[in-house]
Design goal:
By secondary structure, the protein is α+β, with helices and mostly antiparallel strands. The protein has 6 helices and 4 strands. It has a 4-stranded antiparallel beta sheet with strand order 1-2-3-4. Strand 3 and strand 4 form a beta hairpin. Helix 4 runs antiparallel to helix 5. The relative contact order is 0.13.
Length: 199
Amino acid sequence: MSIRPSARGARGIFPVSEESNAPKSGAKTVLTILAVVVVLVAADQYTKGLIEERFTLGSGVNVIPGFFDIVYVKNRGAAFGILAGVKSEWVMRGFLLFTVVAMGMLVWLYNSFGPEERLGRVSTVMIGAGAIGNFIDRLREGSVTDFLLFYIGEYQWPAFNVADSLITVGVAILALSIVMHNPEEGSKETVIQDSAESS
């Protein structure tokens, strides 16, 4: 006569460790991040390709009179036309090297955020995707395609693209995340203020 162990007994003999699910969760997170980055970079490259296909270099079309145009320009500088007038291979190599270093820093920064700091993690993914989008352009052509042009009267913001937008919004969200997840500074200021008032 054989005795079958109860379900409770089986779990007692062969306990399931919660840590055993950690590698699966980590792999799922990595795959999710890669999927998001691929989608964002694909959107950036698609919009640039669309502009290059339908416009001639230097041309454009007015969308909102006095405010917004879609144009086709090439930028050899950084985001928003910074250093665009400098024509040097060393500058180009510097941009490429900076992008590689920045990607490493973003990976470190992402890992430094805790699971509850979602804004910080989202911001690093956005910045990384934007950097990769412009990095591809520089490797392919040595310049970046810009096509979004906003202006008011004679004053205009340098033309930019989807990758630049991702970087800018990502940096803004990163700054917000740092402020929101740094309550210690606020508590320190409160303690100092209370001590000053009591004295």
